[in-house]
Each structure stands twice: as C-alpha cells, then as structure tokens.
Specification:
CATH superfamily of one domain: RRM (RNA recognition motif) domain
Radius of gyration: 21 Å
Largest sheet: 4 strands, antiparallel
Order of helices and strands: HEHEHEEEE
Number of helices: 3
Structural class: alpha+beta
CATH class of one domain: Alpha Beta
Helix content: 10-25%
Distance between the termini: 55 Å
Amino acid sequence: MGLFSRTTKTAKKTSTKKAASATTIVLPKDASGTLHDVIRAPWLSEKALIGTEHGVYVFAVPPEATGRDIALAVAKLYGVTPRKVNVVNLPAKKKTLRTRRGVGTRARRHKAYVYLKKGDTLQFA
C-alpha cells in the first residue's frame, strides 16, 4: 500500500499461480552438452576441504556461469540438489618475476560455493 494510493489493505489481489517446488530441477534442452563446461574442476585448497565436512563444496567455474547454471550442472552430474550457490570473483594478482621484466599478473579466477542439504555428499574420484 502506497502512501497516497486509494487501495486499502482489504483490497489486495490474490495470486493464483502455484509456487515452484525447490526440489524439482528441469534442465533446458541445450544444457546437456555444456554441463562439463560449467563446472571445470573442484577447488582443492585447505579451506575448501574443511568446508566439505559441513556440506559446502567449491568448484572452479567460467566467468559467464550463473548460479542457476551451476546448480543445474551439479544436479545433473552428481545427482544431488544444491540448497544454495554463491559465485565469487577473485581478482588478478601482481606477482614478482625473477626476470628483467620484474612484475607479472596472475589471471583472475571465478569459483562457486555449492551448499548441499544435510547428509548429501559428493564423490570426486
């Protein structure tokens, strides 16, 4: 209700649309060939391995991948439904080189944190 609107609280419109179930994932027709391109590799670091004990898995993803794309790829490849997906952009880093040039730049990277339901696990090997 706006400050100067003429509608009252009792005149709310009710929506007749059904809410989509969070556990149902429908893959688009063109997504079958690109699932391995969305999830490049598991992110193997000490922090990422500690997170697996709590149901949080980390993957290296391309820059154009969205959270929905990553959730669909995890559901199709591993057979589990993610609870939440966070995508993180890691900036490029300046690194000292032991050459005449002196300074180089590491590439920027992108990773995704995939949260699973309690009791769900992923097997990488």
